[in-house]
Specification:
The protein is mainly alpha-helical and 127 residues long. It has helices at residues 2-26, 32-46, 48-55, 61-70, 75-95, 100-119. It contains 6 helices and no strands.
C-alpha cells in the first residue's frame, strides 16, 4: 500500500512540476528548467513512460538528457537562458514603469537567477 501511495505521489509531483515549468515559459519569475529537472527525477522513480516522454521532447529533451547524464549544461544553452532571463525581466520591469520598489525587486530576482545559472557547470565537450 505504501508503495502505491508513493508511486502516485511521485507521478502527481512530477506533473505539478511539468505544469509549473510550462508556466515558467511565459512568467519570468518561474524558472522552467529546474521544474522540469525535478519532474524528470520524480518520473525516473515512478513512471518510465513519463520519464521517456520528457527525455524525448523535441524542445527540452536534449537539455534534460545532458543534465541527467552529466549534471552540466552546454555554454550555448546557458547563453540562451541568460538571454531569455534578461529579456523577460526587462519586459517585466518596463511594464512596472514608475513602481521603483517592484522594479528593484525584479532586478534582484534576476541577479539571483543569473547567479545560479552561472554556477551550473558547463560541459566542455558540447562547445
Amino acid at each position: 500500500m505504501k508503495k502505491i501511495i508513493r508511486h502516485y505521489l511521485l507521478v502527481i509531483g512530477g506533473w505539478i512540476c511539468v505544469v509549473l515549468g510550462l508556466i515558467g515559459v511565459v512568467l519570468p519569475v518561474f524558472p522552467t528548467t529546474p521544474f522540469l529537472i525535478v519532474a524528470l527525477a520524480f518520473f525516473s522513480k515512478s513512471s518510465p513512460r513519463f520519464h521517456r516522454m520528457l527525455l524525448n521532447n523535441r524542445w527540452f529533451g536534449p537539455v534534460l538528457k545532458q543534465w541527467e547524464e552529466t549534471k552540466t549544461l552546454s555554454r550555448k544553452v546557458k547563453y540562451k537562458v541568460y538571454f531569455l532571463v534578461v529579456v523577460a525581466f526587462l519586459i517585466s520591469i518596463s511594464i512596472l514603469h514608475g513602481r521603483v520598489q517592484l522594479q528593484l525587486l525584479l532586478v534582484a530576482l534576476a541577479a539571483v537567477l543569473l547567479f545560479f545559472i552561472w554556477r551550473i557547470k558547463e560541459d566542455p565537450a558540447q562547445d
